[in-house]
Every structure is written in C-alpha cells, then in structure tokens.
Amino acid sequence: MKKTKVIEILWTLTLLACVVVSCFYLLLLGGKCYQSVINNTNQAEDQRIPISFIATSIRQSNKNQVSIQKVGGVECLVISYDDYSKYIYAYQGELKEMVSLPDTEFKLASGELIASVDSIDFELIDNELNYQININNQSYDMKIVMR
Fold first, then answer.
1. Which residue has better confidence, 119 or 43?
2. How many other β-carbons are positioned within 10 Å of the β-carbon of residue 83?
3. Cβ-contact 79, 58 below 8 angstroms
C-alpha cells in the first residue's frame, strides 16, 4: 500500500514537472514570436516613414515650387513657399528636414531628424519627381507626378 502511494505521488510530481516545463517552453516561444513581430513592424515602419514623408511634402505643394539644389555638397529637395523654403535631404545616415528663410544659409547638421536612411537620390523631370531611398541596404524607387 505504501509503495503504491509513493509511486502515485512520484507519478503526479513527474506529470506536474512536465506541465511546468511545457508552460515555461511555451512562454519562451511566445516571447520570441512577439519579439519577431515587433522587429518586423519596426522595420516596416522604418521603410514607410521616409517614403511617406517625402510623398506627403510633395503632394502639399505645386510643381513650380519644387526644385533640387546642392547645399554643402548634399543634394536637397527644396520646396519653396512665399515666406520660407523647406529642404529635405539625407545627411550622415539620416533623412532631415530644414525650414529656412529664402536665400538663408544653414548647417546641414541642424536639420530636424525624420528617419534613418543610408542615402537618397532625387531626379526632377518636368512635373515628375523620381527618388530612390536606400534603407538598411535595400533600395526603394518612388515616382510622384506633381500637380
């Protein structure tokens, strides 16, 4: 009788240990899956932000307000308004925006950080802006027809 009771207790403890180990394994697996989803979401967001920012800036302007200029050896997309100009450029691995008075010099480093990018190239042909953004060694070609 005592021997049977000891075997039952050991069997119960073994089953309980298996359940605990299984739960712990599921928690670890769930944590890794969650981290993977978060990383993928962040990566997709890092890709969308610069593309959307430039597209939105262009759509808010007219075609004769947009030009491409070199400032300090860096190619900038310039959107000119009556009172100010907006410069969009890549500098030291960052997409930056600088709002400045017309014909006022500024330091490229002082622009506002928008997102991290490797590089960006602009090409303006008639009323069409083509730009290529390189993010994390991936290239994205975009085309916007201006109104």
1. 119
2. 8
3. yes
